[in-house]
Amino acid sequence: MKTKVNEISIKYQGNFKISQAPKVTSSQSATELLFCSWNKDQIGLQECFKVMLLNNANKVKGIFEVSTGGITGTLVDLRILFAVVLKSLAVNLILAHNHPSGTLKPSEADKRLTEKIKNAAILFDIKVLDHLIITPDGDYFSFADEGLL
């Protein structure tokens, strides 16, 4: 009897070369790219957590939606997050989530989660460059710019 198992894969959607990929140069450029990827019908209703996957030249390999939650929070499963990060061979990350309320101040839970992801990434020689909080009108808070990373 032959045993069968499923093959795990990751899929990139899009038809462009990495040389044509946008390069992240600042928290503002990252926010603009992330904001464009957000569902504008949902950004003011539910929290969503995304990760921007970057190569070693900070060119965007892709954006992955890790979770969608409720009005005031979303659950981020680090195993799912890092399954995608490792499979994509990203070397730098930018974390992002929205605050439907429009508040730009990070919560203590936001700070703890950022530290937890940053520490896990270190084990894989992956760098968390920033964690952005984005509001429905496109304003943002950058952990890196504010010295919280």
UniProtKB/TrEMBL annotation:
InterPro entries: MPN (IPR037518), RadC_JAB (IPR025657), UPF0758 (IPR001405), UPF0758_CS (IPR020891). Residues 23-149 form the MPN domain. It comes from the Bacteria. It holds the Pfam family RadC. CDD domains: MPN_DUF2466. Keywords: Hydrolase, Metal-binding, Metalloprotease, Protease, Zinc. This is RadC family protein. It comes from Christiangramia antarctica.
